[in-house]
Amino acid sequence: MASELGSMSVKLSQMDINGDWKISAPNLQKNLAILSPDQIELAKMLLETGQSNLFEHWPEPGVDDEKKRNFFDQVTRLNASYPGGLASYIQTARELLADSKAGKNPFDGFTPSVPSGENLTFGDGNFVKFEEAGIREVRNAAFVLVAGGLGERLGYNGIKLALPSVSTTGTCFLQHYIESILALQDASCRLVQGKYQTQIPFVIMTSDDTHARTLELLESNAYFGMKPTQVKLLKQEKVACLNDNDAKLAVDPYNKYRIQTKPHGHGDVHSLLYSSGLLNLWHDAGLKWVLFFQDTNGLLFKAIPAALGVSSTKQYQVNSLAVPRKAKEAIGGITKLTHADGRTMVINVEYNQLDPLLRATGYGDGDVNCETGYSPFPGNINQLILELGPYIKELTKTGGAIKEFVNPKYKDSSKTSFKSSTRLECMMQDYPKTLLPSARVGFTAMDAWLAYAPVKNNPEDAAKVPKGNPYHSATSGEMAIYRANSLILRKAGVQIDDPVLQVFNGQEVEVWPRITWEPKWAVTFSEMRRKVGGNCSISQKSTMIIKGRHVFLEDLSLDGALVINSVEDAEVKVGGSVQNKGWILEHVDHKDTSVPEEVRTRGFRINKVEQLEMNYSEPGKFCFNP
Ligand code: UTP
């Protein structure tokens, strides 16, 4: 059989290959007999795209033949996972590398302006109206979490999804996300259908760096209560590295029979969703929305109902969640770009491109704050809501390909060689770049305290962040959750003490009472208001954890730690005065390796000195009022 295949491939090679092959890739030519016809086709494509260097070191047939065939297995994968295949990748790379060498500005000819969108204020009538509209729609949505990133800046040894979002409960980000989706699912179905029916699909995009550990986290925790069939993992592939301006593919320095690869960026999510066939399945099932989010933003779900309400009310095909942005802050600005030839698009412009773009187009001061004290361009937090129908139509046109960029680090100003290999990259938020000007693209802006507190930076780097800018560390991410929960309860009428300032891991943060609740306790502000009544107060040193749906706080005065656990069919009213020594935050040095990484990365641990814990494990109505 093997020799039959061999002789077939030799015949094919003789028919297909012109004489130049012998000259340009003599080592490959000698090895043709060991390759299958499909592999020979791929070899041909590689030679035609100028990649003969990949075979320079190939020895005579009979040496490393298996490895040579494995090389083509990798080429097959790289070819299949890129829209248009490797030839298209190399072609695009050449064009982008030429533009980069020439210093071409991607926004040449475009004038920036502030796009239209919805600016929301937490808790006012408008916000509540959009939240209710969002809850109605959520049963028609699918959620997509991009979690293939390496998290190099954070430097955590595990996957970011496994990191506790708060240390009071130890709930990891993935658990929090799943519980939030399930809570939204219940709330939406109860509101619209009166009973639980719909299962909201949840997709997680992983990569070779995160896939196995994400699956393991789900399986070892019974999918955190979600039906395993509701969850789908899609793994993104890396892309080929490029050695020079001519887009020569790089040989892996550790294995000469492999092409070196690096991550392509979160923009892959669009082509993966498209090729998975899921979008059409969702469409056929009547779904209308796809919500994209990232791995470590513990606040996001507080903003989701209102933002989805904006999408549905304003019929946005693309809705980017945004927060007020300080001029020059290191987050992109959502910007409308109008070209001299009439083209327009609403997209994210990276912060380092916004200032030069503004200066080049008549705004002499560049990226500056306006009278509000913020940049007029809303800050992009990379959480997108897309309308499914138009999304499918667009991806059918593009095959899911997203406009890419290349960022080579040149050795010198001649820009002829790179310090190390580079590759094409793409970003999820660049999806609107190919849309027609008639597409309805907008944004929903909310206060950062409500919507955005990612965990991206390690303690050392976070401590170096200029004063006034967000740390985006595990410390600030956790404190932001307590702050948001305190502010939300305050708005609902609970008297909450002001925070104190404390320094952990070199970062000064506001420390509010450590209040957390399971998402099902209250997914909207209206629901929260129904759950607190009378005169409630919580002191700064307090910790409160609510686990359960039907828990009502009435005339509660808390100064200490209170933990309430109640089963689904228990209705619990909690009031009166609760006082104890509580849970104390103790400093931990981030360099102290005797402390678990999850703890030392945030610079504190919780010493559970004393608490009142109430457990309601039976159905029924209960009242606690000491
Ligand atoms: P980040 O900007 O946080 O990047 O990605 P990162 O790669 O995780 O971290 P650094 O830059 O190495 O420090 C934003 C989101 O996009 C996902 C991340 O998992 C995160 O949720 N992502 C990033 C992908 O899914 N794939 C990628 O190739 C890159």
Structure characterization notes:
Keywords: Nucleotidyltransferase, Transferase. InterPro entries: Nucleotide-diphossugar_trans (IPR029044), UDP-sugar_pyrophosphorylase (IPR039741), UDPGP_fam (IPR002618). Its EC number is 2.7.7.64. Its cofactor is Mg(2+); Mn(2+). One of its GO terms (biological process) is UDP-N-acetylglucosamine biosynthetic process. This protein is α/β, with parallel strands linked by helices and 626 residues long. It has three domains: 80 residues, no CATH class; 359 residues, Alpha-Beta Complex (Spore Coat Polysaccharide Biosynthesis Protein SpsA, Chain A); 165 residues, 3 Solenoid (UDP N-Acetylglucosamine Acyltransferase, domain 1), CATH 2.160.10.30. The chain is 33% helix and 24% strand. The chain has 19 helices and 31 strands. The strands form nine sheets. Strands 2-17-10-13-9-3-4-5 form an eight-stranded mixed β-sheet, sandwiched between helices. The N terminus is likely disordered. The site of uridine 5'-triphosphate (UTP) has 18 residues, from loops.
CATH topology-level name of the largest domain: Spore Coat Polysaccharide Biosynthesis Protein SpsA, Chain A
Q: Portion of residues in helices? A: 25-40%
- Please report which band the strand proportion falls in: under 5%, 5-15%, 15-25%, 25-35%, 35-45% or over 45%: 15-25%
Number of helices: 19
CATH superfamily of the largest domain: Spore Coat Polysaccharide Biosynthesis Protein SpsA, Chain A
- Small molecules in complex: uridine 5'-triphosphate
Structural class: alpha/beta
Domains counted in the coordinates: how many?
3
Termini distance?
84 Å
Could you name the ranges where pLDDT drops below 50 across 5 or more consecutive residues? 1-16
CATH class label of the largest domain: Alpha Beta
Rg, Å, rounded: 27 Å
Mean pLDDT: 93
Main sheet: strand order: 2-17-10-13-9-3-4-5
GO molecular function, one term: UTP-monosaccharide-1-phosphate uridylyltransferase activity
Cofactor: Mg(2+); Mn(2+)
Organism: Tetracentron sinense (Spur-leaf)
InterPro entries: Nucleotide-diphossugar_trans, UDP-sugar_pyrophosphorylase, UDPGP_fam
